[in-house]
Amino acid sequence: MGSRGCFCKRPAAMGNLLLLLPHPAKAKLRPPTAAAKRGTLFFCSLSTDGPSSTMTVSITGATGFVGRRLVQKLLSEDHKVCVLTRSASKATSVFPASTFTGITIAEQGDWDKCIQGSTAVVNLAGMPISTRWSPEIKKEIKESRINVTSKVVNYINNASGDARPSVFVSATAIGFYGTSEISSFDESSPSGNDYLAEVCREWEARACQVNQEDVRLVLLRIGVVLGKDGGALAKMIPLFMMFAGGPLGTGRQWFSWIHQDDLVDLIYESLKNPSYKGVINGTAPNPVRLSEMCERLGRVVGRPSWLPVPEIALKAVLGEGASVVLEGQKVLPVKAKQLGFSYRYPYVQDALRAIARDL
User: For residues 296 and 247, is the Cβ–Cβ distance under 8 A?
Assistant: First the structure.
């Protein structure tokens, strides 16, 4: 990868089904706790030497499905957040000042000031790939990830020593590994040879250009994120409620998933715990076949799950992108388990039941 001590020999690709779905509707955010409302954020650099120390975290993609929940988590723990955005008006609508007073919103011209005043940076940005892949769209999908990551890395590297963030958590995805019905993948597995694997190799390569002598780098290869406010379930649950839910294609493809709360906890632990470094798969320890996932979802919402969505229908809508859903991948979080990360929802049935309680 070109940078000394780079952890990421293989960049990550996006998780499968989640990445083929449209942007989720805006989530209903719970306001932060009273502790999170004290003071405003701007550009203070704080140490993370100890479990009770306060962090200032700059986040790209903060208005997205995962980012919104991460912001809530940080504020609830009395940390401070700088939202790095291309649209201040959108960020303000997601995080209104009346209830989210521990936040600074920074448009691109001010990203460097926020980053240089932060303890840590989390990079979650990237254009959704839930559309037919024309050559122009494929170029934009790649560039949206690489360009933002490059910009963030440059700001971190150009910061003076005492103002430089000490941690950089950059999200990638399990699409890095390619697809397979028979193989299992962990953090040591080689990259695939399809378009998404190519995107992720370049995406991670840019993240690896951060100065790793001074900055701890964590690369999270994220699977399909389950939660009630967006991601895969935001599209699947309405189909099941209309008695039209079922597996996509054969249903035998692997579904490597993680509950939204577990992913946010994994990001949070990556910020706080110096043992977390290099590539970590952001998936639950028990992936399932897509047919089992759909069957369990049907039970939870009290609807049948026998009507499959045929391959020809998916290909008509998604074109080349349908291959990610139709083939799938079994990705295991070996590193997270070695680090002792504790999952709230290690089994998909428990994750679905928890989500259904809030529907």
Answer: no
pLDDT digits (tens, 9 = 90+) for 214-223: 999 999 999 9
Give me the residue spans of the domains in the chain.
56-357
- Residues 347/349/352/354 CA torsion (nearest 10 deg): -80
3-state secondary structure of 332: coil
Task: Let me know how many helices (H) and strands (E) the chain has, helices first.
Answer: 13, 14
- pLDDT band for position 35 (cuts 50, 70, 90): very low
Cα–Cα distance, 104 to 127 (Å, whole number): 23
Q: Assign residue 39 a region: left if phi > 0, alpha if psi is -120 to 50, beta otherwise?
A: left
Q: Which residues contact 154 (CB under 8 A, 6 or more apart)?
A: none
User: What distance in Å separates the CA atoms of residue 14 and residue 177, rounded to the nearest whole number?
Assistant: 9
Q: So what's the pLDDT on residue 239?
A: 58
**Fold category of 56-357 in CATH:** Rossmann fold (3.40.50)
Residue with tokens 């026998």: 306
**Ramachandran sector of residue 143 (left: φ over 0; alpha: ψ -120 to 50; beta: rest):** alpha
Per-residue pLDDT band for 2 (boundaries 50, 70, 90) equals: very low
Q: Is the pLDDT of residue 6 over 80?
A: no
CB atoms within 10 A of CB 260: 24
Q: What pLDDT, on the 0 to 100 scale, is given for residue 297?
A: 77
In the β-sheet with 56-60, what is the strand arrangement from edge to edge? 103-106, 80-84, 56-60, 120-123, 167-173, 216-222, 278-282
Q: Beta-strand (E) ranges in the chain?
A: 56-60, 80-84, 103-106, 120-123, 167-173, 184-185, 216-222, 224-227, 230, 254-255, 257-259, 278-282, 288-289, 330-331
- Contact of 307 with 280, CB cutoff 8 Å: no
CB 155 within 8 A of CB 115: yes
What pLDDT digit, counting tens, does each position of 65-100 carry?
999 999 999 999 999 999 999 999 999 999 998 899
Phi, psi angle pair for 83, to nearest 5° = -90, 115
> Which strands, in side-by-side order, build the sheet including 257-259?
230-230, 224-227, 257-259
- The residue whose two tokens read 């994750």 is 351
